[in-house]
Amino acid sequence: xxxxFLSELLxxxxxxxxxxxxLLRDGRPADLGVAATKSSPIDVxxxxxxxxxxxITGFLAEHRPADGFLGEExxxxxxxxxxxxxxxxLDGTVNYLYGLPTWAVSxxxxxxxxxxxxxxxxxxxxxxxxxxxxxxxFGNGEALHCRPAAPLDQALVSTxxxxxxxxxxxxxxVAERMIPRLRDIRRGGSAAxxxxxxAAGRLDGYYERGLHPWDLAAGDLxxxxxxxxxxxxxxxxxxxxxxxxATPGVFEPLQVLLEELGAWHD
Length: 266
What we know:
Elements: H1 4-26, E1 34-37, E2 44-46, H2 47-63, E3 68-71, E4 76-77, E5 83-91, H3 93-98, E6 104-111, E7 114-122, E8 127-132, E9 137-139, E10 142-143, E11 156-159, H4 165-178, E12 184-186, H5 191-199, E13 205-208, H6 213-225, E14 229-231, E15 243-246, H7 248-261
Parallel strand pairs: 3-5, 11-12, 11-13
Antiparallel strand pairs: 1-2, 3-4, 5-6, 6-7, 7-8, 8-9, 9-10, 13-15, 14-15
Helix pairs in contact: 1-2, 5-6
């Protein structure tokens, strides 16, 4: 990468994610409990989500005090530099609460609204993913490439489910109708990790309804830089209605199938 400014942002994101990942991995109390709930009683925040976000924002603000922030646990400021950090300090909180390994720290940098840097740190998998706009995607320093094109009926696709009962009931119905038309479906529990697994060639595709910007920002860039296509409903970018990421051969038929099944509404 030749752009020194983007190199600076990447180095800061990598270090912030490394520090937050170490805090979450090594500082997890044995009696970890729920600090708050979000959309429903089973959509939780732990004390560690909050500590990790404070660590990240504090570190980044120390080095770049004029930048803005958008964080899942409440960090929000406009900034004056044109750079905004989009942060999910702990993506996969329920996995983390239960001691499952699929969780990650996700940090992205936007310049004038365009994502230019993405980092996903998955400490329990000993993996660090990163991408810079136009510079490719990497996992533990090795270049990432999504899988070769496959027919939809041979595609392994991951998804996630909302924590509001009425919403996930419809999502389960959509998944039930999709399963016979795919190789199979997986449910990992972390959007950031799923997007990186598309980038790394471990999945042919991923889709989910109800994601927020912090869920998507880093992983979407990493997937695209690895050669995947990303978007939402046909002709639209990824948003709360629908996010889709897949290899070029799977993306369009998967997107069409999701539209047909109404995956974008409750």
